[in-house]
Amino acid sequence: MKLNTEKLLMIPGPTMVPNEVLNTMALPIIGHRTADYGALLEDTVDKMKKVFQTKYDAHLITGSGTAAMDMAISNTVDKGDKVLNIVNGNFGDRFYKIANTYKANTMLLDNEWGDMADVEKVKETLEENPDTKVVTIVHNETSTGVKNPIEEIGKVVKDHDAIYIVDTVSSLGGDYVDVDKFNIDICVTGSQKCIAAPPGMAAISVNDKAWEVINKTETKSFYLDIKAYQKKWESSKETPYTPSVSMTYAMNKALEIVLDEGLETRFKRHDKFAEATRAGLEAMGIELFAKERARSVTVTSALYPEGISDKDFRGTLNNDYDVLVAGGQAHLKGKIFRVGHMGSVKEHHILGTLALIEAGLKKLGYDAGCGVDVAKDYLL
Ligand SMILES: Cc1ncc(COP(=O)(O)O)c(C=O)c1O
Fold first, then answer.
1. When you count CB atoms within 10 A of the terminal residue's CB, does the N or C end of the chain come out lower?
2. pLDDT tens digits, one per residue of 143-165
3. Is residue 2 part of a domain?
4. Is the CB of 145 within 6 Å of ligand 1?
C-alpha cells in the first residue's frame, strides 16, 4: 500500500508532529508495570500538569479527546442530574450528547455558531437553576473557529455548587489556559492538536471540588472509571489497563518541547500566526466566519467566496498542492473552510498555505490578489 505522507497538515488536528517526537515512537516497548514505565508516566503527568497549570491531579488516557470528554461526564453525572451544556458549535454539542447518553437532565444553552458564548446568559441560567450539578463548555470551538470566554464563565460558575468542565482539546498548549486560575474543575484535552503529538492520547485534570462530586457519583464506565485511574496512580504510578507505551514516549517529548519553548512564547506565536492568517485571507477578499471579538488563535474559519465550491477548493489544495485544510461541519458543511495554525506550525507553513490558497482560488477562477504580502508583515 502506498500512502502520501508528505501533506502539509493545516487542518485543526491532527497537526504536524516534530521528528524528535516521532522518533521516540521507534523506541522498544517497555513493560507497563515496571519502574521504568512508572518513571516515564510520572514525568509525563508532571509535564502535563505544568501545561494545564494545575496543582491538582491529572491522568493520561489511551484514547482520543472524546474519551476524556466521556470520562469527565460519566464520572460526574447520574441519571436525572441537571447539566448545563453551553453550546456554540459541534464540540459543545458533543458534551450535550454525552450528557444525554448518561440520561442527565440537560439544559442546552444555545449560542450563535460563529460567536462566543454569552456570559450573562450563563449567569441567569445558573441563578434560575441553583441545583445544576455540572456546566460544560468548549474553550476553542474548532468547528467554527471561535474562542469562548472560559475565564469569565469560570468566575460565574465558581459562585455556584456546580462543577465546571472545560474542553481545551484544540487550545491547550497553544492558547492561554490556566486551569486553577480559571476555576476549571475538570479540564480535558487531546494529544494531536496544539501539543503536536500524534493522535491517540487524551488528558484530564481533576481538582478537589470535582473529586467531591466524583466520589458521590455512581461509576458508569469500566474503561473510563476515573476512580480506578486514581487508585492505580496512588498505589503504584500505573494506569489500570495497558497504556499506549509509544504514545507515552511521544507525549513526554511533545510536552517537553512545549515547556522548552515556554507557554508564554508559544501563546504569542499562536497569536501572531492567527493574525497573519486572518489578515492574509481578508486581503484576498475572503470574509472571516467567526465574529471579530470571538476569533480563535489556533484555527481560522472563513466563508467561501461566491462560486467557489468546497469540493473544488479543498480538492485543488490537496491534490495539486499537497495542502490539507478542513471544511465546515454540520450545517456549515460547504459554506466555510478552516485553516489550522496550531502546534509545531512555522512561518513558512503559514505563508506557504496562504500562497497556495491564492493559487488554488486563481485556478478556480477567483482572483484573490496577494494575501501573502499582507500576512508577511505580521510575521516580522
Ligand atoms: C474542541 C474539540 N473537542 C473535542 C474533539 C474530539 O477529539 P477527538 O477527535 O480526539 O476525539 C475535537 C476534535 O477535533 C475538538 O476539536
1. N
2. 999 999 999 999 999 999 999 99
3. no
4. no
